[in-house]
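User: I'm curious what two different proteins look like when written out as structure tokens. Can you demonstrate?

Assistant: Sure. I'll show them one after the other, since each token string lines up with its own sequence. Here's the first protein:
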Amino acid sequence: MTNTLSDQLTRDLADRAATLLRGIGAEPPQDGELTARTPITGGVLATLPADSPESVDAAIERAAAAFGAWRTVPAPARAAVVRRLAELLTAHKTELAQLVTLEAGKIGPEAVGEVQEMIDVCEFAIGLSRQLYGRTMPSERPGHRLMETWHPLGVVGVISAFNFPVAVWAWNTAIALVCGDTVVWKPSETTPLTALACHTLLRRAAADVGADPQVHQLIQGGSEVGARLVDDEGVALLSATGSVRMGRIVAPRVAARFGRCLLELGGNNGAVVTPSADLELAARAIVFAAAGTAGQRCTTLRRLIVHVDVVGPLLDRVAKAYRQLRVGNPLDDGVLVGPLINESARTSMRAAIDRALADGGELVCGGEPVPGFSEHAHYVRPAIVRMPAQTAVVREETFAPILYVLTYHDFDHAVALHNAVPQGLSSAIFTGDQREAERFLAADGSDCGIANVNIGTSGAEIGGAFGGEKHTGGGRESGSDSWKAYMRRATNTVNYSTELPLAQGIQFG
């Protein structure tokens, strides 16, 4: 693509972004020091002001002030905001999905799917508002009742990443709001326009149902803005999604002020394919899990561990599908793989492939840039590299579409290979053997927070708690009882007798 055509396309995309924002009800941002780029061309969509240290502090103070009243609103009434948000997300699903494509580079169906995740978690949170259950336990003292109750925690800080610019915010925010918390959101500086759109819709939802719009605050900028959120003692819980490197910085700083952390960090996800597997089904699942979103999901499949008896026919199927993947502008029909987010991602991918080849790996296919685009955009063909062993580069997470293929001889070897990485987010096994499936899900099987059978590593559902172990951080978001991370627990004892017996039968005085 010539520079002239690329510049014209960028202008068209910038105009479209402004139109989409107006359709949602947000004013297109004015000039500032924060630049919103599109990975489609690498060009500028808009510039907008970044927050200062003082404005971040003010946002946290506003959220804290709003919390004072919000925590006393009954949870089912708090859910009215989330219900209205779900209605607005449904009404503006197309516009918001297109903004995700423009800023994150996702193909249309994936962008729409991400917005649907937001709607789904809103529905989950609405039901949850009537299920914030405590418990009653038998007291050892007569005339006493012993129970546990759950209460709103305070201000929740949310730091989200570029690859799911809206869904992860919704996972945290919908649940935090029904739990009685207020939210301060620091999105990725790569995706400020989608954040502006979501903030506008939530503020409108609050106003529409008579709630205080100050329950949600948006702060924009780089790492220095996020650091302010990390270090502020007024932030009761910090939920951060990003790299392991980021988590190593964030966790000790929050711990030093005795705050709470919910971390969703890297995933170096593996899938085991056994001799009894349905290879056609496995191949389809592997291709989507490994190449979807250009390999830029935390749940992307990065390691394929295949029994030696089936590695040949399986690899033939997967490589054939890879060669047919259409890589290009995510706005075009039929494109399955969009761009990498920036030049740094492309450089990391090339360096990882070079290291793998130096370790004795064989490049089966892919890895080359796709010509015809702007020099500032980065499109690559997803790569498959067959490895003789699980070397250092395989044990690291490269946030790009590289699938490393390893082989095994016996099931114990497969599980050992699978677990021998620092990360522990998502995992899968493809098998027709019930015993193998159950062993993979058992305590001595996969050590990940997510373990699937005959389905890929990506595409988690809202109802299940999402998160992982080891260097992935241990946090849980979205479904199940993840709401407990957003609340504080109190143990209550009620004496309804006329006596004052002490616990453990102690006699005093």
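Here's a second, unrelated protein for contrast:
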Amino acid sequence: MMDVLMYLFETYIHSDVELSVDQEKLEDELLKAGFHQDAVYKALDWLEDLARLQEDDSYTHVEQSTSTSMRVYTQQEIDGIDTDCRGFLLFLEQIKVLTSETREMVIEQVMALETEELSLDDLKWVVLMVLFNVPGQESAYTQMEELLYTADVGITH
């Protein structure tokens, strides 16, 4: 599913090409591009959920984090988001790419991927897609885009 999402993002959104609103034609194009039908459907559903973030005001109730606050992950989130990825999310918050609200959006979208193993590169793409879809996050999107295309940025061990 991540391959489909990355393809769509790079082909349509990131390159400013007009995204076809006809879902059937888009599905056909993705299938012709070699993607499996199940992955295409899941990716399109995931994108619909992502688009709903713009309308969802439940994130406005997330407490603003302070320098002494800490996000506690559920066991399900720990199982789905490894230590490196959680550390990278913290790093993004510390450098002000993510707010507590956008962090929660990213975590929700990551968990919706239903992937067994989330790579750090996949997480970076999810963050970029979330920031692209949230109004007022243009500066954070630009910063994240730079981080995405820069190798070995983030946490050092």
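A detail about the second structure: Residues 37-52 form the longest helix (16 residues).
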